[in-house]
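Build the 3D complex.
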Amino acid sequence: MTKKKISIKDIAKELGISITTISFIINGKAKEKRISETMIKTVEDYVAKVGYRPNYLAQSLRSGKSKVIVFMVEDISNSFFSNIARLIEERAYKSGYKIIYCSTENDADKAIELIQTFKNRNVDGFIITPTLGLEGEIKTLLSENFAVILFDRWIPSVECSHVIVENEKSCYEGTEYLIQNGCKRIVFVTLESEQTQMQDRLSGYKSAMKKHGLESLVFEEPFHTSSPDFMGDQIIDFLKSHEKVDAVFFATNYLAFEGLHAFRKMEVLIPEDLQVLSFDDHFFFGLHQPSISAIAQPIEQIAESLMNGILHQLNGVESTEVMKIELSNKLVKRGSTFRTV
Amino acid sequence: MTKKKISIKDIAKELGISITTISFIINGKAKEKRISETMIKTVEDYVAKVGYRPNYLAQSLRSGKSKVIVFMVEDISNSFFSNIARLIEERAYKSGYKIIYCSTENDADKAIELIQTFKNRNVDGFIITPTLGLEGEIKTLLSENFAVILFDRWIPSVECSHVIVENEKSCYEGTEYLIQNGCKRIVFVTLESEQTQMQDRLSGYKSAMKKHGLESLVFEEPFHTSSPDFMGDQIIDFLKSHEKVDAVFFATNYLAFEGLHAFRKMEVLIPEDLQVLSFDDHFFFGLHQPSISAIAQPIEQIAESLMNGILHQLNGVESTEVMKIELSNKLVKRGSTFRTV
DNA sequence: TTGAAAGCGGTACCAC
DNA sequence: GTGGTACCGCTTTCAA
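Done.
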């Protein structure tokens, strides 16, 4: 709009008043400070006319607040995270907060580095999917009174607010659903990961299998797969080397994509030869031929809980209570699973 | 780590030296300023010991630079954008820059608001997929010497660096490919949008059709579709109300997803009854049954060109030259298109 | 009701 | 080789 940056000083000089007065008016403290109506109007008009905007840096340097929340996830290009990101951004916006995204790539060093960086930028709060080894950093954050809320997974040893889903319960139910469909030999495909959400999913599967007196068949993909095909090949080997498998239950949707790719190569007939179920629904599952059954996480609710939680911490005065939220998932039944008995 | 924030002053006091010296050492100007080795070592050790990190806000308030680049796209949850985001983040990181993402949702007001906000945070550069109506804002940015680079689309009336792809050429070739496959009645499904990339794609299609003496059949989806099904139904109507259509060419992948969904409902046989081609490849196209042919944009090259361009502007002294880059796409032939003649 | 001035935590110019 | 100190632009006492 205008040419050069205009500061509060310029306005003061131009209007012949002090910067203090302007600051009060801009920050809505005019009434409180009993500034005259005339003065208020003069300043407001001028501010609007020149399109003045206070410099955020200076503001937050002085106030220690920045109205910025960091949204730190494992991988922002993962649709689960980017969808939540969008919802959060929207709500944050309404409350006058900005969101800064970043991806940790599950690398604790990178995560720590990012947290340090953002602390130095005076961000007010953090929404984090913690990587392993972030425990100390989170504790520090908490002790420094930053607003922090974890999601997707959490850290048992740290008393920190979090929003997660019923991983264990849903996987238990999902497994039981496959069993009810007549499957006996069910393979659970997961990542070799100690993250709580992965462990809980695995454990839900195992409990269900055990309860029904079935043998657990777990395929763990090493965390860093160089190529997507790699896992595809491995799972083919796994299936071939095991007695006929009735169903495969994937612990995340991207594992399912790799698996489906592999099944394509093997020319397996779904669901006739193999039933397929995946954790974490994805719109492609509805488009896939056949459509793939999945356990859908309540994206909107997660986003809402996160924002409520963090805003609560941000506004709340010394509300030390830790907020632990666990949301329910929904089993979406589609073509890849069906009752044979 | 430590308890309270430690500032350069604390270090000065503790070590009994001036903050100036410390500042020099921290900023690698020790040699230049001929600070003694002993002093350097003392300071560096102490800094490492207490884990001191300069406050970025203060730094950038003073220097006017922030080492931050804004990556402003239409929708960060769109995989095309989020994939580029990741690549860019990686490269930026190596050059000591941080990336801040945000989505405009194609809303010029929101975009302007965001740009204003970031200007006030002293960001150094902007990577933008411009919405319509952003012309003035971009011009201002340029005149204020911010580093700016547009991508995906551009603004003809503004002399601004940009990285785009050969939309017209690729769509011309894609259309011709369908024609060579024996298709005559080819529908081009696009958005009702004046954005350059959409216009160019449409125009490529039209030229090809015209050259081969075929009639252009264009279906334009109104920009804001309330539900994904909406367009699906509309395209079914469109196809039904037209003489037998041989092929559908989608201008973006999400349009293709909607379309494929509709074709599913119609029980159309692909490619026998209908050949399908889409602009902007997506990993799901390879998984779909049948796999979907697509025009793949060179993601890595785009990301690389963007970073090169912006870093060039950031480092370059008065390099007023505008950088216009147009990259080539690749036609990926899959099961949804095949030669019938 | 308004204004002066002291910071916030650095950087950079200029002395010593 | 080091140190003093005037800013950067704003918020926030405290005085007037």
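Residues 17-21, 24, 33-36, 39, 58, 60-64 of chain B lie near DNA strand D (CB under 10 Å from a C1').
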